[in-house]
Prior knowledge:
The complex is a heterodimer. Chain A is α+β, with helices and mostly antiparallel strands. Helix content of chain A is 26%, strand content 39%.
Amino acid sequence: MKRIITATVQNQSGVLNRVTGMLNKRQFNIDSISVGSSETEGIAKMTFVVEVSDPQKLEQLTKQLNKQIDVIKVSDITDKAMVARELALIKVGGNGPLRAEIQGIITPFRASVIDVSKDSLTIQVTGKPDKVEALITLLRPYGIKELTKTGVTAFLRGQQPAKQVTEINSFSI
Amino acid sequence: MKAEVKQEVERAKEMITGADLLIESLADAQVDTVFGYPGGAVLPIYDALYRSEAPFKHILSRHEQGSIHAAEGYARVTGKPGVVLATSGPGATNLITGITDAMMDSLPLVIFTGQVAKGVIGTDAFQESDVMGITTPITKYNYQVSQLSELPRIVKEAFHIASTGRPGPVVVDIPKNISQELTPPNFKNDFYLPGYQPTKRPNPLQIRKLADALSRSKKPMLLTGAGAVFAKASEELKDFAEKFQLPVANTLLGLGGFPGTNGLSLGMAGMHGTYAANMGMYEADLLINIGARFDDRLTGNLEHFAPHAKVAHIDIDPAEIGKNVPTAIPVVGDAKEALQALLDSPIDQPDHQAWKEKLLNNKRDYPLWYERSTDVISPQWLTEQVYRMSEGEAIITTDVGQHQMWAAQYYAFDKPNRWVTSGGLGTMGFGFPAAIGAQLGAPEDLVVALVGDGGFQMTLQELSVLKEKNLPVKVIIVNNEALGMVRQWQESFYEERYSESIIANPDFVKLAESYGIRGMKVDKEEDVASVLEDIFDYDGPVVVDCRVEQKECVYPMIAPGKGIHEMIGVTK
Lengths: 173, 572
Ligand SMILES: Cc1ncc(C[n+]2csc(CCOP(=O)(O)OP(=O)(O)O)c2C)c(N)n1
Ligand SMILES: [Mg+2]
């Protein structure tokens, strides 16, 4: 099962290395990791999308993350109301008439063209991973020359519904 | 103007180096012994040691691995962090085995490594090694000092992290420019670690659950590990076991946490544990694990481990709970506090008389056994003699192999912190240097290093230290002229193809003598008692080459892949 785990960490040098090293050593399957600064200076936020086989493995993962000295808080937000987004840059081949066609495809995704050259254009798309993936699938026939994704970053919505929701359903990365 | 210059001169006079500040920090941490070895990147620190009147002694090893194993031995017997100092590059990399060993066995160590100057880090400078990169996976935490002003705080944090919660090794990497830099002697070491707040006090609800499970249990049993020793919980453990008449098995590293000679002790559990201990875990309906990590050498095949038991697990490290064995009652906290909480809880006595008798009958009916050889010394018998002649009071360190398992089986430890062995990593070469550290940590005690002829040769250069410091360690080489444990596995699982396991040894007596140490050889049973009496009375170091039967095997045994109920060699 896929889970989204967030961690609040002290922004020490080596913290990313420490955490990824641990995940690697303990053989956890990581789909993506994103790291960045937070609202507090010296504190960074990490978002992991992980594939775990069973609840025990998941428990181990959060415990091992928590055990890291630099890790202040770990949350599995998969089953909470949350916002999860990633960004992708996609360079596709295309000139002349193809461009209009591509534009037609990306518009419903609220993606934008951020660079154009003689025979390629670069598209930026932000959103839930499944949306990003859908656009990539649609663009594939045009020949993807280069692709990069940031990995998911996520946090809880401001308000949590009284009943538990499962956004993972709409989170079919 | 003049006054200003004067002030400046005064201030310059007061300046101290980073190395001085380090020594002050160590003094502040109440360090009494540093195990180290000098080199280029730590020259400023060694110079500061020379110049200062440091309130601790420095023990010069002959190989950095010797330093770190000594620090581990020291930590085991004193419960205090062992302190190590080594130079950059090869000095640091020579520590890797010991750091890993300490990590696996949760030993508190604070390790200082020199590093090349900050300006050349990352340029493959002479004797540069990526200590942070190399030690990240094998330490509880590590630091590279990037500013001198943070050194006192880092040192204080390092000692705090190493010795609290689940103990472990912490590395502090100090670039040479930092130890050389001048600073006014201000010393600030307050710290705050929001991500590191170990839970000591157990959750009362969980204690209640455990208490209820105990009173309902028909077949309860305790398994205790090194965590109980680290928590100094021996007394509470004994009270608890006796109050509820619970049979107790110890893990290899938990030996001594509960008295080995106590009527409720089933001895060691695991691969070479007793039938009573292993069958107890197999049949129990409630297994209370106190500070053990359910290592695979303990559990055997997990499918058959404690299949009928509700498992309760008390551990200060939450990540150990449920890691290998599904756990019904997790109790996160310090073993001493948890046991005290249990002792304070109203708990109905479980109805388990028949079960207790069964386990104690197993203990009586299936004792450890060996066939005593008539013409060659049996290593098990030798171990029993060491136990008898030292009245069970010695601090025993071992290396890794057959002699280690025999020591665990035949030396009954009644007190904690007297059993020093490498469990998790199984590091050959550990036993002898660990004895040096143990002796320095417990100068009044009889320290016996039971080592294999193979493992002793991995770190025997430390004999120089015994001589130099006149440490009265008794080294007993259980000499089977073989890498015995390897030989045993080849006998049992590789159809007696003894590939590279029968070894030729030096003359250990002459070897000892060349270091200026008394050397003795014994190869007859009838001489063993007098030799042991002699060396235990002798106030100095001694090496005894004790020739033993080569073909002995450690039994009983859970063969690899088998369950704890499938022991072989339980009876003759
Ligand atoms: C550093 C290291 N290398 C290899 C091993 C594998 N090993 C485990 S026991 C053993 C044999 C040890 O021989 P010896 O020290 O003579 O002890 P004995 O088993 O004969 O009592 C070996 C090679 C190890 N544990 N550690
Ligand atoms: Mg041997």
